[in-house]
Design a protein that fits this description.
seven-stranded antiparallel sheet; Jelly Rolls; globular; 2 domains
Length: about 270
């Protein structure tokens, strides 16, 4: 299995872990951590399926004319022979996983966001380390494959009951951090009370909806700031004015977004 290195990610580190390479049930995991923008550029693999996952931030993705974001509860899945682009911000960990087989739930998806279950999210970092036994890693790989699935239904449909309301909303907003929908509007779509949805956010993410949305918007902005001016980024991630965006950004990170100078991309 061979993959290309990302571009424009200096300095960055890449750790490589391969198990059963050359076999249909093999897996190759590339673990990146960058001190600057992590830009995989325009990429295409004719013989390998791939997915990208970041447990520490937001991924900016593009496939054809579709652009968007993927949060930590999802991966960006890419079928072989599909051209795509992925970017991450500085100080962000990204797992790029290469496979020869397609997870059952993703058989009809050429490229796009897909859910990653809790067990799969736990197992992936576990096998991405030195000295892990191949047999155990391949057994974990099989469970990771099962743990990748289609995203939850759109919030307008709502889950069939029980927990998961906050995650349904979080996945929708992760695709568009600038979404202006209020908490009460999400609750109406899900046919639940505002109190129930707020409580589910605090249970799932340890913070209220407004705080979670602000953090997501700022994480997404860090990816965009490397290639877009502050004013454009502010509106893209849902702020009414650049000044309100700058204030929120400085409060979160201790410096202003002007520190990120847009650079040319190819």
């Amino acid at each position: 299995m061979t993959v290309q290195d990302p571009v424009g990610a200096d300095p960055h580190s890449c750790e490589e872990y391969g198990y059963g390479l050359g076999r249909p049930d093999g897996i190759l995991i590339l673990k990146y951590r960058s001190g600057a923008l992590l830009d995989f550029g325009e990429s295409r693999q004719d013989f390998l399926h791939q997915f990208y996952w970041s447990p520490t931030g937001v991924l900016a993705t593009r496939h054809g004319t579709r652009t968007g974001f993927v949060g930590g509860g999802e991966v960006f899945w890419v079928h072989r022979a599909v051209t795509h682009e992925v970017r991450a911000a500085d100080q962000q960990t990204v797992y790029r996983v290469c496979l020869r087989q397609v997870p059952p739930a993703l058989a009809d998806l050429r490229a796009g966001a897909a859910a990653i279950g809790d067990e799969a999210a736990r197992l992936l970092p576990t096998i991405a380390r030195k000295g892990y036994a191949e047999d155990a890693a391949l057994a974990a790989r099989a469970r990771i494959m099962v743990g990748l699935g289609a995203p939850a239904a759109e919030p307008s449909a709502g889950p069939a009951g029980g927990p998961g309301f906050a995650m349904t909303v979080a996945r929708a907003i992760s695709h568009d951090p600038g979404d202006p929908t209020r908490l009460d509007e999400w609750a109406d779509r899900l046919h639940i009370s505002v109190k129930t949805l707020q409580r589910d956010f605090e249970r799932e993410f340890g913070m209220p909806y407004s705080r979670w949305r602000t953090r997501l918007r700022l994480l997404a902005s860090r990816v965009l700031l490397e290639t877009h001016p502050v004013t454009e980024v502010a509106h893209r991630v849902g702020y009414a004015s650049p000044s309100s965006f700058i204030t929120a950004f400085a409060r979160e990170y201790g410096y202003t977004p002007g520190r990120h100078t847009p650079r040319e991309t190819t």
